[in-house]
Structure formats: C-alpha cells, structure tokens
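Retry 2 of 3 after timeout on previous attempt. Resubmitting structure tokens to design endpoint.
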C-alpha cells in the first residue's frame, strides 16, 4: 500500500518512517502558485497531525526547486494563502521542517527555504533573489529572514543584483546548512534523518537576530543612486533590510507594503513585460519543426562581427571553422577571439580550462572549401550584395546537403542572397548584434523560401548560444535597424531645429536609455551610418527632409570615438561636446534658413518615442514582426531600451493609441511626409484596443 497522500494536484505527503516527505510537483518550474501554497500549508498541517511523523522534509520534483512566486498571478486579485502566510505556517510547524532544494531556488522559492528550520541543498543548486529584475523586492520575508541567516551585506548583494549564487557560496554565507549530492528526495530524507539523530540543528529564522551593517547599507544606497535610479523598489529594499534588526513583524509589514506598491508601479509592469517578452519570442509558427543538428559551424569573415559570432559559438560548446581571404585578416580574427575569451576568463564568466577547451574547437582557415563538413555557415563579411551573392554561390557548391546557409546581413534582402543558390530553402538571415559575444539579440530573418526546420534550427542555435532569437521578415533593416533608421531621423531633425546633441542625449538618458543617440552614433562609428545613407541615397524620396549634419561631420574625418572626435570629443579630459560639430550644426541651420527654437526635454522624448512607436507599429502591421512583444524584445535585448519601460510598444500602451495619433497629426503639420499615422494605430485609437491585446491574439 502506498504511503503517499495526495494533498492536491501539485503537493504530495509521503510517509517514510518517521519522516514526512512533502513533494512539490508543479511543472515547468514549480512556481509557487495558489495550489502550491495551499498544498504546502495543508501538507505541513497533515504531517503535524500524523503521530508517526517526527520530521518534515520538503523537496521538489522536476528540473528545479521553486522558481519563485507565480508571476502570472501578479496584477490579479490575490489568492489566499499568500506566500508570506504559507512560509509563516511552515516556520510555525511544531515538528521540525527541513528543505532540500535542487536546481534553482529563486525568489519566493528561496524564501520558502528560509522559512524552513534547516536547509540542505542538492549539489548544483543555485539560489537567488531575482525579484529586482521584475522591479520588485523580495516579498515573502527575504529582506527579513535573509539578514538573519546571512547578514545584511549578502542579502543586499543578492536582492539588488538578482544574481544566481552557487550553492557552495550560499553555504559559506550561512544561507545553507549543507550541500549534498544525490536525488532531491534522498537528500531531503537524509537531512530529515540527520535532524532525528541530532546531527543537523534546526531553528526558526524569524527568532534569530540580525546584525546591523551600516557600511553595507551605505554601499547599497550609493550603488542604487548611481545605477538604479529608475528602480521602483530598490530603496525600499535597503530600508526593509535595515529594519531586520527590529521586530520581525514590523519588518514584514514594511516589506509587504513595498512589494504590493511595487506591483502597481509602471516600472515593475514594464520589467515583468520584459521577462515574458524574452520567453514569448520563441513561440513561432515553425515551432513544431525539428531543428537540424548543429555541432560544427563555419564563420566567414574574421572582422568584429565574425569574431564576435565565433566567440559566442565557441563559448556555447560548438566547433567553429573561421574563413578569411588573407592571413592578416585571419590573424586579426584569431587575435580578437583570443582576447574575447581571455576577457571572459578575467571577468569570471569562464574558467581557464573551458577557454582552452573552446580554443581547441577553433579552426582558422584561408580556404572556403574547408566548409564542406560544417552543419551551418554564417557569412559575416561587409554589406555588399555582390560579394554576398558570390559567397553564397560558392557555398552552394561546397557545403554538404542540409547545411544551413546563413547571412549576418543587417539590412540586405535575404531573398536575393538566397537566389544565388540552388537551395533557397536552406538560406536564412541570422543577424547578430555587436559585440556578438555579449549582445543577447539574434534576429532570425525568414526569407520566402526558408524551410520551417531551418527556422527552427536558427532558434535552437539562439538558445544554445544563450541569445534571444526573434523572428523577423525580410525588409530593409528587418525589425530593429528598420525602426532605428526611421526614428534616428527625428534626432537629426530635433538638432537641426534647435536642440543640441547633448540635450537630446541627456533627455533620453534621463528617460532611461543607457546612452543617447548621438553618443551611440559616436560609439558605433559615424562612418557606418554614412556608408548606409550613401547606399540608400538613390532611393531617397525627394520629399524627405534630409539632415546633412552627420555627413558633414564625417566629411571632416570625424567618425566618433575611433577618431577621437564626432559629436563629442574623446580624450584624456573625458567626453565633452565637440565645438566643430556645433559649428557645423549652426552652418547647416543657416544654410537652410532655420531659426533655432528651444525644446523641453519632454518634447524631445515625445517626438523621439512617437517616431519609434510609429515605425514599430508599421513593422507589426506588415508582419515583419510576429507580434508587438517581438518588437519589444528586439529593443530590450539589442538596442539598450530601458527594461523598466518594457519596450517601445509596451510603452506605447502606457500612452494610448488615441494620444499617439493626435501627436502624429500635430507633428505632421510641419512635416506631413515623415509623420504619417500608421493604419494599425488609427484602428486601435478607434476601437480602443492595445498592443497588449494584439500580443494575446498573436
Ligand atoms: C517572487 O518570487 C516574489 C516573491 O519574493 C514574493 C511573492 C509574494 N512564474 O525561463 P524558462 C515560466 S518573484 C510563472 O524558459 P529555463 C516561463 O514563463 C519571482 N511562470 O526556463 C516559461 O513559460 P513558457 C522570482 C514562470 O529552464 C517556463 O516557465 N523568480 C516563472 O530557461 C520556463 O521558463 C524569478 O524571477 C515564474 N516565476 O529557466 C525566476 N518562472 O514555457 C524566474 C518561469 O510558457 N524564472 N516561468 O514560456 C527563471 O529565472 C527561469 O525560469 C528559471 C528556469 C531559471 C527558473
């Protein structure tokens, strides 16, 4: 007869001698939704009522312990019991409760552990308080039990960085009492037996004293002021941790209120949207197709992009064959990859052994014929259709049947590239963002004839390389660069009309961008946009307002950081506006007879963001992006869009389609060619729908 009682759909209580084993089984990540919470309360009560049970041991089934509160419940009416109450019930258990987390114990999952009377992790465990990434603070006693177990410094570090801490480190903090190898159920059972034998001490965390650590609090405040000024609950988190030296209930009440307030904050809503955006983008029409196996890839081109892509692939465990036409190019590529991997070792992201292993999988070559055995090729040479078609024509004859042929083009027509081969179904765009070993975005550009399994292969590769793959259709610039090309013009218009580059940059940095558009231009190299504008010049419509300022700056050899001068000067004295660039701006205004006017920062943000949203809406309307949330992901993971704003189209919903249409119509009075209301936005203004509604439909 089974000794296991089903408490509810997700919780069981198994009697193993004097141990009551409570198992949480709520796939995929055991999030602590209502059923888990109710089940835990009931299981602990049942175990307490069972005379045969002396110790209770909690563990979880599946790939991980509890990954936190169920984020899908946020923003909905609260369901009893709350997580803090659940954990209080666990801690109040008269019989000792041990917990044996495995995989990851995050947020509410870690807080459940903190409420148990002892914690023995399963080797490989990682723990964390990632609420900060959702604009929240730990809301189920992390700020109160955390300092009582591991001190303020470690609690603040975890709660403000959200980083996942390896079990060994957590053990050294005192957050865990032990770390054992084995199956979670076995580790839980052993831990419970150790309690019975008196080998493992148990205690109630809320009854411990926390020690004041003023230095840690000051450091945290300074860090928040510098790096997290838009975060809605970071300061409350510090305050809550500080209160842990006082009465437990008072600290809990403060934490709870801050958490509930945080949930309502638009910044938290934006960050939660970003969390789901990262995951939503993998839901694609080709989702059921089987990806082709990829173990060895070819990278054509050892420049910045090629070596970045090769670095990312090597770090992901793939074998890479890099092709260059001349030895010096190849040497530069090898040098860049070595530097990238060494940098990862220095930053503690990779061990020396892993770096050596990665380099052993790397084969540079001057002969394209060497690509005969690779599973996938990524061409990363400069943006010239003729050159790319020539390469793809050759790949068609060299690569084995079934190899995926990908281009890293940022703008060019993937259909045309595919037409250079006799196997267009194998051709796809894989558009990485620079530096490709760091930036998380990967646009997977699907051409007319690309086979579904080739699309699925692109997404599988993205996952393997820890990138966020976003499906994009073919058009000039795909999702990101197309929208960028459009709204960047607004920055030029604003400056030609009277704002300074620095004012535009400052306004947008205050809005939340890490860097304003003129600083970004200087960083990327102004010559890149210049070359692209020259390429596009024959197609530029006569009605389009064209700002020549950037071109004029480039004509004087000022390409931004790489030449020490662009819109700003970069030297030992730091960054400051470039007086010559300001003169050029004045000259251009004079030449066009423009009397400079002044803009408020709000006006700058309004125009810039409205332009971004307009083109983003068109990209959705034309089906270049599958859903609005895909555009958001592109900007969050490839363009430094502030996470707390959720992405351009999440942000658009906070303004509302009606207001956006009114703005565009107002701006169109001065420039009807540039400012046009996208049909989709007009429809939304009329029927009251939002981009969030479109996400649900898609
Ligand atoms: C919190 O705990 C607050 C408390 O302090 C206080 C409360 C009062 N809820 O990431 P994956 C889904 S805040 C709901 O692809 P992996 C996810 O959307 C929470 N759903 O897997 C996806 O669904 P779908 C703090 C969740 O193996 C599926 O699970 N916790 C949650 O790459 C698989 O996810 C966190 O912030 C959730 N909490 O990575 C941790 N988590 O298949 C968030 C995941 O429909 N989670 N889903 O797209 C993670 O970091 C990763 O999921 C984890 C696994 C590392 C666990």
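Retry 2 succeeded. Sequence:
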């Amino acid at each position: 007869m089974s000794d296991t009682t089903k408490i509810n759909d997700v919780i069981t209580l198994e009697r193993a001698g004097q141990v009551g084993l409570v198992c949480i089984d709520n796939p995929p990540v055991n999030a602590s939704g209502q059923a888990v919470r109710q089940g835990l309360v009931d299981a602990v009560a049942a175990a307490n009522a069972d005379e045969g049970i002396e110790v209770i041991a909690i563990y979880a089934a599946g790939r991980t312990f509890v990954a936190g509160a169920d984020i899908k419940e946020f923003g909905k009416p609260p369901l009893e019991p709350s997580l803090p109450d659940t954990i209080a019930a666990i801690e109040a258990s008269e019989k000792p409760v041990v917990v044996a987390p495995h995989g990851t114990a995050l947020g509410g999952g870690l807080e459940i552990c903190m409420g148990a009377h002892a914690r023995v992790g399963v080797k490989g465990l990682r723990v964390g308080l990632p609420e900060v990434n959702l604009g929240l603070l730990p809301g189920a006693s992390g700020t109160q039990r955390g300092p009582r177990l591991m001190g303020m410094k470690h609690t603040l570090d975890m709660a403000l960085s959200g980083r996942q801490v390896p079990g060994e480190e957590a053990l050294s903090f005192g957050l865990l009492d032990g770390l054992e190898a084995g199956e979670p159920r076995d580790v839980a059972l052993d831990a419970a037996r150790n309690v019975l034998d008196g080998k493992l001490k148990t205690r109630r965390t809320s009854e411990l004293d926390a020690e004041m650590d003023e230095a840690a609090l000051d450091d945290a405040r300074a860090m928040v002021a510098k790096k997290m000024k838009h975060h809605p609950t970071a300061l409350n988190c510090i305050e809550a941790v500080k209160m842990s030296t006082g009465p437990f209930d008072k600290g809990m009440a403060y934490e709870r209120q801050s958490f509930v307030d945080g949930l309502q904050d638009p910044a938290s809503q934006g960050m939660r949207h970003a969390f789901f955006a990262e995951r939503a983008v993998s839901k694609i029409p080709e989702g059921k197709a089987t990806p082709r196996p990829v173990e060895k890839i070819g990278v054509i081109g050892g420049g910045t992009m090629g070596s970045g892509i090769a670095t990312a692939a090597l770090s992901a465990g793939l074998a890479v064959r890099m092709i260059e036409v001349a030895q010096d190019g190849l040497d530069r590529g090898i040098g860049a990859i070595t530097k990238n991997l060494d940098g990862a070792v220095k930053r503690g992201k990779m061990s020396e052994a892993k770096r050596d292993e990665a380099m052993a999988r790397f084969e540079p070559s001057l002969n394209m014929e060497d690509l005969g055995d690779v599973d996938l090729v990524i061409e990363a040479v400069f943006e010239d259709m003729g050159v790319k078609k020539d390469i793809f024509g050759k790949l068609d004859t060299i690569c084995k049947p079934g190899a995926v042929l990908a281009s890293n083009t940022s703008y060019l027509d993937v259909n045309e590239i595919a037409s250079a081969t006799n196997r267009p179904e194998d051709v796809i765009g894989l558009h990485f963002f620079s530096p490709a070993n760091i930036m998380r975005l990967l646009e997977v550009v699907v051409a007319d004839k690309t086979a579904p399994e080739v699309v699925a292969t692109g997404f599988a590769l993205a996952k393997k390389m820890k990138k966020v793959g976003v499906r994009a259709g073919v058009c000039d610039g795909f999702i990101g660069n197309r929208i960028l090309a459009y709204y960047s013009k607004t920055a030029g218009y604003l400056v030609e009309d009277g704002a300074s580059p620095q004012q535009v940059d400052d306004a947008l940095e205050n809005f939340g961008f890490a860097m304003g558009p003129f600083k970004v231009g200087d960083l990327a190299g102004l010559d890149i946009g210049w070359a692209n504008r020259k390429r596009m010049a024959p197609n530029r419509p006569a009605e389009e307002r064209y700002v020549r300022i950037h071109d004029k700056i480039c004509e004087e050899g000022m390409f931004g950081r790489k030449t020490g001068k662009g819109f700003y000067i970069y030297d030992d004295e730091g960054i400051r506006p470039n007086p010559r660039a300001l003169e050029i701006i004045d000259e251009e205004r004079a030449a066009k007879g423009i009397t400079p006017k002044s803009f408020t920062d709000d006006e700058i943000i309004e125009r810039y963001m409205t332009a971004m949203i307009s083109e983003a809406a068109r990209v959705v309307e034309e089906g270049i992006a599958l859903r609005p949330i895909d555009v958001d992901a592109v900007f969050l993971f490839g363009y430094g869009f502030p996470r707390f704003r959720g992405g351009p189209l999440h942000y658009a919903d906070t303004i509302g389609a009606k207001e956006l249409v009114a703005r565009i119509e107002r701006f169109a009075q001065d420039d009807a060619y540039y400012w046009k209301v996208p049909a989709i936005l007009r429809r939304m203004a009329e029927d009251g729908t939002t981009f969030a509604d479109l996400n649900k439909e898609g």
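Attempt log closed. The chain has a mean pLDDT of 96.
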